[in-house]
Design brief:
The chain has 295 residues and is mainly beta. It has strands spanning 2-3, 7-10, 14-18, 31-37, 43-52, 59-64, 73-78, 86-88, 93-99, 108-116, 129-132, 141-146, 151-152, 158-159, 173-174, 179-182, 185-189, 202-208, 213-221, 228-232, 242-244, 253-255, 262-268, 277-283, 291-293. The protein is elongated and about 75 Å long. Disulfide bonds join 146-173.
């Protein structure tokens, strides 16, 4: 059910509340009220998919009326683009009040409504990551891991708490700027990969292997003659094993041979243009599973 009327009592188990005329801009001088009513003992979850109001002058007030009809709790007054990703009620009735003034407008809002009795909303899955755990009921926990080459921003599982909120925010999987890499195999990505890398980077990865390492390039695109990836096996970047730039996919590189059991990669980007960067896998010989330590 999609609600675009300016006044409505909402009792369906799920649906969407849209500002008038959404996704086009809403009108001036609006004063709208939506009352969302679920079964006593249940909770209402609001998920803000889109939110764009004229800052300071147009606003949406979200109130919890389920347990406090005479003195409702106000979750917040929201304007501009500043809105939480989701809100869960304490009682079984919520009230949304939308008001616009006589001048500028915005795109408005798209709010998903879901009524649940004993669970949290789907927390999502990090980009370039995986979720472990399919139960979102009160007391359950969900953990996350990242694809090869990415580092999880927070290793602690999230827990669905009694207030129907997760204990903390969804973590992210990030391609970081440098670090120590130990292992038989692994992946090294430019920061932000597959998005464009930032400007003014100076990143160094140290790969500790035994009996050499073989680097294989799957993606390579740097600003030619301005951004560089240098590879050395003795820490001397003045005379590297390879110094790479541009967008031609390099052949495989072997380093860390002849008893030099560390290989270093240094990525330098300047202050101007950037591109996709690189995706490199490596293989060594005898060390155990991959562990990445970041300074």
């Amino acid at each position: 059910m999609h609600l675009v009327s300016c006044f409505f009592n909402f009792t369906a188990p799920s649906g969407t509340v849209l500002s008038p005329n959404y996704p086009e801009e809403y009108g001036n001088n609006l004063n709208c009220v939506w009352l969302i009513i679920s079964e006593p003992g249940s909770r209402i979850h609001l998920l803000f998919s889109d939110f764009d109001l004229e800052p300071q002058f147009d606003w949406l007030v979200v109130k919890d009326e389920g347990n406090y009809i005479l003195h409702p709790t106000t979750f917040g007054t929201f304007s501009g683009k500043d809105v939480p990703s989701q809100i869960a009620s304490n009682g079984h009735i919520m009230r949304l009040e939308f008001q616009s003034d006589h001048s500028n407008t915005g795109k408005g809002f798209n709010i998903s409504v879901k009524m649940e009795t004993d669970s949290c909303l789907d927390p999502g899955i990090p980009v370039n990551g995986r979720r472990h755990g399919s139960s979102f009921s009160i007391g359950s926990q969900v953990s996350f891991t990242c694809d090869a080459g990415y580092t999880l921003s927070d290793q602690e599982p999230i827990v669905c708490e009694q207030n129907h909120q997760w204990s903390h925010a969804l973590p992210s999987c990030d391609a970081l700027c440098g670090g120590y890499v130990y292992g038989k195999t692994g992946t090294i990505l430019s920061p932000g990969f597959p998005d464009f890398y930032p400007n003014s980077l100076n990143c160094t990865w140290t790969v500790e292997v035994s009996h050499g390492v073989h680097l294989v390039f799957h993606t390579f695109h740097l600003e030619e003659n301005h951004d560089y990836l240098s590879i050395t096996e003795d820490g001397n970047f003045l005379v590297p094993v390879a110094r790479l730039t541009g967008s031609v996919l390099p052949p495989g590189v072997k380093a860390g041979l002849y008893g030099n059991f560390t290989t270093q990669l240094r990525f330098i980007s300047d202050f101007s243009m950037s591109y996709e960067g690189f995706n490199i896998t490596f293989s060594g010989n005898i060390l155990k599973g991959l562990i990445i330590f970041i300074h």
